[in-house]
Design goal:
425 residues, single chain, mainly alpha
């Protein structure tokens, strides 16, 4: 009993619990206000909000340039004074990237407006938000590294609440439509970005000193990771751009609404994987051969049971989603259910992927994994284009599902190659 209590009181477990709960709240709250917004925003309005999110996704990547990861890697290797200088040089890199993109924006504003159907001033606002998001990301990674989960959690929940409350007031009370939702998001991002900057300066996390050594180190860390990060953006964002181009913002709104239901099961899958992967690594780490063989067979049986559980959960989520859309959403969004089955199905296969990719992480054979990720992203870019053009928006759902299956199959066979398991008995 005492041992169990000591495990429950372990700082790592407490921190993991706080991060998980806060992540759940931050992901669940925007989803659960969607039925409310559906009565004030037409699908075409929500389509523009979804396109704004697509633009925000790529701008956040291009401005941040994985500087939070560079800081994370070096945080415990450098002295306090050195890390302060490193943070400033990482901030400089992101600032230069922001200014470069800002200059480029004025040369490509017409193509961007045609591509996303979002007025140029809101695209500039999106870039400004990416800059403040970058500051918040640096602040948040420092809190993680200093093991301050409470700060991290309060900050994240506060950001979400300001975002949601501002959006609801602007959309419902002031009837600003899709612009109100975007302005609500920007208020939260800019306010909390400013708070992060004040916090970093006040508590002496930044030393204004340029050092080519740190500047170069952070740049060489961030740039090689950019293609990998962009491949994930392509898989989640390119379909909305194609749908806007061929079928308009209204269809994007219906498609994005349907795919929001995939977020629910993806969160559960992610939370389960956070618990399962350490267990798997520990189970496989024994060097005693008879025990290792027993452990492997146990993991195989467990994996098959989890696969069946994911399928069952996916079916339940589909029925649950149908009920929510029919009884909670505005009637203009009823057609969004057409995409729900494919969204949840894709997430189920992403769950299958996670069960096998952990073996690749265990043996540290991740270089080939990056290649698989890039191949799948390219397949989706090409497949989505032709399917959406020929079949309509549903082609994006088919493409997403197909690529999730392909990704799972490639990773499953690659994991079986790099780490032998008794999958067939």
């Amino acid at each position: 009993m005492k041992r169990f209590q000591s495990i429950l009181s372990h700082p790592l477990l407490k921190a993991s619990f706080i991060y998980t709960i806060c992540d759940a709240i931050n992901k669940a709250v925007p989803f659960f206000i969607l039925p409310v917004l559906s009565h004030y925003l037409l699908p075409s309005d929500y389509g523009l909000v979804a396109n704004f999110g697509v633009l925000a996704g790529i701008l956040n990547l291009l401005v941040l340039l994985t500087m939070d990861g560079a800081i994370s890697v070096n945080f415990h290797r450098l002295t306090r004074n050195e890390i302060r200088e490193y943070v400033f040089n990482a901030f400089l890199i992101s600032s230069f990237s922001f200014l470069l993109i800002f200059a480029i924006f004025f040369f490509i504003q017409k193509p961007l407006v045609n591509l996303l159907e979002i007025p140029f001033k809101y695209q500039v606002l999106c870039l400004i938000m990416a800059f403040f998001n970058m500051i918040s990301s640096i602040n948040l990674i420092i809190w993680r590294l200093e093991e301050k989960p409470l700060n991290f959690g309060v900050y994240g929940i506060g950001n979400t609440l300001v975002n949601i409350v501002s959006s609801l007031i602007l959309v419902i009370t002031y009837k600003l439509g899709w612009q109100g939702r975007i302005i609500g998001m920007s208020i939260a991002v800019i306010l909390f970005g400013l708070y992060s900057w004040i916090y970093l300066v006040k508590f002496n996390y930044i030393k204004l000193r340029f050092k080519i050594k740190y500047f170069r180190d952070a740049l060489l860390f961030g740039l090689p990771l950019l293609p990998h990060a962009l491949s994930f953006w392509l898989r989640s964002g390119i379909d909305r751009i194609y749908i806007t181009h061929f079928w308009g913002a209204e269809q994007v709104g219906l498609y994005a609404t349907g795919f929001q239901f995939g977020l629910l099961i993806s969160f559960l899958i992610g939370a389960f994987n956070n618990a399962f992967s350490p267990y798997l690594f520990k189970t496989l780490s024994t060097t005693v051969e008879p025990k290792l063989s027993v452990n492997k067979r146990k993991l195989v049986k467990m994996t098959y049971a989890i696969l069946l559980g994911l399928i069952f959960a996916g079916v339940l989520f589909i029925f649950f989603s149908k009920f929510i859309i029919e009884y909670w959403f505005s009637k203009e969004y009823l057609d969004s259910f057409e995409y729900v089955t494919w969204a949840i199905g894709a997430q189920v296969f992403n769950g299958f992927y996670l069960l096998f990719v952990n073996y690749i992480f265990f043996v540290k054979k991740t270089k080939q994994l990056a290649t698989i990720t890039m191949i799948c992203a390219l397949i989706q870019v090409i497949l989505s284009y032709f399917l959406i053009r020929e079949l309509g928006p549903i082609g994006a759902a088919y493409s997403t599902m197909a690529v999730s299956v392909i990704n799972f199959i490639l990773v499953m066979f690659y994991s079986a190659k790099v780490y032998k398991m008794p999958w067939l008995g």
